[in-house]
Amino acid sequence: CWCYVHFFVEIMFLCFVFRWKVCIFVLNFVCMALHNDIGQRGEEIAANYLQEHGYCILERNWTNKGRKEIDIIATKDDVVVFVEVKTRKVGSASTPISAVDERKQRRIILAADSFVKACHIDFRCRFDVVGIIYDDFSSSLEHIVDAFRPRPKYY
After folding, report:
1. Count of other CB atoms within 10 angstroms of residue 22
2. pTM recorded for the entire structure
3. 3-class SS at 133?
4. What are the DSSP calls for 24-79, one per residue?
5. pLDDT, tens only, 16-50
6. What is the band of 144 on the pLDDT scale with cuts at 50, 70, 90?
7. 46-79: per-residue pLDDT in tens?
8. Which of 11, 115, 130, 148 has the most C-beta neighbours closer than 10 Å?
9. What's phi and psi for 122, nearest 5 deg?
10. Could you give the percent of the chain with pLDDT greater than 90?
11. Cβ(75)–Cβ(125) under 8 Å?
């Protein structure tokens, strides 16, 4: 985290010297990098948890041509499980699970449909959500099995 603090101080200096428009672009880039780090850390925790509980990880961060992503695709007991991982730091305004709203579910379902068609999957499928809240020293994980189901209107 120290490298981000140092980088942020340099950015603030650039904001003083140069125009704010450039600085806003750079700050957005830094915030996105931090967001990606948090997401990757959460996905790693979730993948380890799933493997410890008997899941076989098939894919991580699978994307279709439409740029819809599935965080983890795994199997357990002849079921293909599409897992959405949401990670938040302690003290965040929203819970990880609440971030998987109906719009996000629709995107996951469409991506899963693409995966099933592309790989000719003929197994039962389900959609799980793993929510992770962490700080620098510990994390808590909530795994919701069969968190949502496709509705006919999506197809």
Report:
1. 13
2. 0.74
3. strand
4. HHHHHHHHHHHHHHHHHHHHHHHHHHHHHTT-EEEEEEEE-TT--EEEEEEEETTE
5. 555 555 555 555 544 444 445 677 888 999 999 99
6. very high
7. 999 999 999 999 999 998 876 788 999 999 999 9
8. 130
9. -130, 45
10. 46
11. no
Measured between alpha carbons, how far is 61 from 84 in angstroms, rounded to an integer?
Answer: 10
Task: Calculate the dihedral angle through the C-alpha atoms of 105, 108, 109, 110, rounding to the nearest 10 degrees.
Answer: 120
State the amino acid at position 53 in one-letter form: H
The residue assigned the tokens 């592309």 is: 118
Collapse the DSSP code of 122 into the 3-class scheme (helix H, G, I; strand E, B; otherwise coil) and give the result.
coil
Tokens 């719009």 belong to which residue?
Answer: 103
Neighbours of 1 (CB within 10 A): 8
Q: Which long-range contacts (CB under 8 A, 24 or more apart) does 93-101 make?
A: 95/131, 95/133, 96/42, 96/131, 96/132, 96/133, 96/142, 97/129, 97/131, 97/142, 97/144, 97/147, 100/129, 100/147, 100/148
